[in-house]
Amino acid sequence: MWRRVQNLLRVPRLHLIRSRHVITGAASSPSLSIWRRKKEISKEGLMVAKELKRLQCHTVRFERFMKSNVSRLLKSDLVAVLVEFQRQNLVSLSMKLYDVVRNETWYRPDMFFYRDMLMMLARNRKIDEARVVWADLKREQVLFDQHTFGDLVRAFLDNELPDEAMRIYDEMRESPDPPLSLPYRVILKGLITYPELREKVKDDFLELFPDMIVFDPPEDLLDDQHWERESEDD
Description:
The protein has helices at about 1-25, 45-55, 60-70, 75-85, 90-100, 110-125, 125-140, 145-160, 160-175, 180-190, 195-210, 220-234. By secondary structure, the protein is mostly helical. It has two domains: about 35-105, Alpha Horseshoe (Serine Threonine Protein Phosphatase 5, Tetratricopeptide repeat); about 110-234, Serine Threonine Protein Phosphatase 5, Tetratricopeptide repeat (Alpha Horseshoe), CATH 1.25.40.
């Protein structure tokens, strides 16, 4: 009889452990993240997205619509609308929906959520907004893996934002996640047109991976790309 009572008492404890595991794992596991699933917008979501785009220049009406309609969207629709705005590079609307999502009761800090926002902001060269998003993820203690760091640094480099790229690179260097060689190679390739910065990252790479080799591009290629960048600036 006593054993049966002990077994019954153990059940809630096990249930709590499993539930806690799902919650903490959701922030980093691709299979559990809602931001990695296919996003299909319902008719209501499409109507809301269309109306938000129409009203974005009318502040009062826009805010009224946000409170009355956007707050009523299902989680799947809200996520899908934000992803669609990101795809269309609608920065202002994406930032509005970003704030809405973070205030939802179902919201959980998620690496992929922040990754997608920062990639979109890099494409549109929005440094101030990127720093706002970065400050939010730091407060929520979201950790990027090394591959995500490499992709983000490369995105900012590809969009000619080397200072912001190197700021993220410094965060990558301080990350508790063990360094991997591939993200460094991705960054080094993106730094071909920034030889001084490339030498810094190259030194870090060789210090971390002393048995590996970095293949430098031909000098004439560097000269041509440097000349092209100067011509564009002029």
